[in-house]
Specification:
The protein is an all-alpha fold. 70% of the residues lie in helices and 0% in strands. It has 2 domains: 79 residues, no CATH class; 229 residues, no CATH class.
């Protein structure tokens, strides 16, 4: 038994593969709750390493054992009841708008443009796409939130350009910019505030643009804040991760799985750890794609194919391990609370009566 828990990350990966193959969504949710215990054990083991004491290892083994038990029970029940269970897809309808050409053009510029002015142009194009979605929804009061968030974010980049001077602007040279500690704190405050307003996670989850701007948020954090302003990120890290943990738990409790993935990805970015920076794009893009496509194809899936919809959870579930490892390395209490809140939300979802109506999404 001890050898089974020597490499918890491999055990977790095997549990993920089992959970995504559970054909009944209700028991897939229960299995996902078991994954919460397993990922916490695996991430804690990776953070503690060989320096962890006996008590630490024992706690991790208990968590892993609990996770394995829940996953196996969920899998057994799910595979046994698959032929008789009513279809209840794990993915709820999405209120996110359909993709627009401006969105993808702006995304490409923001992610790959070599100069900060082109990055700003890409941001403007993505914000214009969000404005179009807001106008089409006729919920015009959200334009104020969009303009405030976009204005704060653009102001931060204008300040960055001003500090760099006429000779600056090359994205590869941002990390060598003459940013003082005070400037870093101010710029990260502006970047963090603006991106949180645009991300589509609670409490701005009712925004007409949904999570379509989530990649913009992650790209700006990676290419600007983490690259050029690491000191400012460290200053604001506790507050940002606390807010994102609350947003993720809120999203899970209200069955907004796209928002949960985005919040988890952004929280791992704010940790600043290499493992978090690598896992965050996978989580954010998973939430973005889920939000963009769920409402399009959910009702078009043939009934025999519904048992395979859990495969969409494979990438974010695997990315959750390095993301949580990064979170534990930065903010232990916040990260553990995040996982615990999501587990509670998943158990609550499992206990929900199948005939009960879905939670409101907008």
């Amino acid at each position: 038994m001890d050898s089974l828990f020597e490499r918890l990350e491999w055990l977790y990966a095997g549990l993920v593969l089992l959970v995504v193959l559970i054909p009944v969504a209700r028991f897939r949710v229960l299995g996902a709750a078991g994954l919460g215990f397993a990922v916490l054990a695996a991430a804690s083991d990776r953070v503690g390493g060989p320096s962890g004491d006996t008590t630490f290892a024992t706690v991790n083994e208990i968590l892993a054992g609990l996770g394995v038990t829940i996953v196996l029970v969920a899998a057994a029940a799910g595979f046994r009841r698959a032929p008789r269970s009513p279809a209840m897809p794990f993915i709820p309808p999405s209120a996110d708008p359909k993709p627009y050409p401006l969105l993808f053009i702006g995304l490409g510029l923001t992610a790959f443009a070599p100069h900060i002015l082109l990055v700003e142009l890409g941001m403007v194009l993505m914000l214009v796409a969000a404005v179009q979605a807001t106008l089409r929804s006729q919920r015009l009061r959200w334009l104020a939130v969009l303009l405030i968030g976009g204005g704060i974010l653009m102001s931060a980049l204008v300040l960055v350009t001003t500090i760099l001077g006429a000779a600056g602007g090359d994205m590869t040279g941002l990390r060598d910019g003459p940013f003082s500690p005070a400037a870093e704190r101010l710029l990260v405050l502006l970047v963090g505030g603006g991106t949180l307003l645009l991300s589509g996670v609670p409490p701005v989850h009712r925004a007409p643009w949904g999570t379509t701007l989530a990649p913009l948020v992650a790209i700006v954090m990676m290419r600007v804040a983490l690259s050029a302003l690491p000191g400012g990120v460290l200053e604001w890290q506790p507050l940002a991760m606390l807010l994102l943990a609350g947003a993720g738990i809120w999203a899970a409790l209200t069955r907004r799985w796209a928002g949960l993935a985005v919040a988890a990805g952004l929280a791992s970015l704010w940790s600043g750890a290499p493992s978090g920076v690598l896992a965050a794009p996978l989580l954010v893009l998973s939430g973005w794609l889920l939000g963009m496509t769920a409402g399009v194809w959910r009702d078009r899936i043939p009934r025999p194919a519904e048992r395979w919809t859990g495969l969409i959870l494979l990438v974010p579930a695997l990315a959750a391990l390095p993301a949580l490892e990064a979170g534990l390395g930065a903010q232990v209490v916040v990260s553990v609370t995040f996982v615990a809140g999501v587990v509670v939300a998943l158990v609550r979802e499992f206990l929900r009566r199948p005939e009960s109506p879905p939670a409101p999404l907008y």
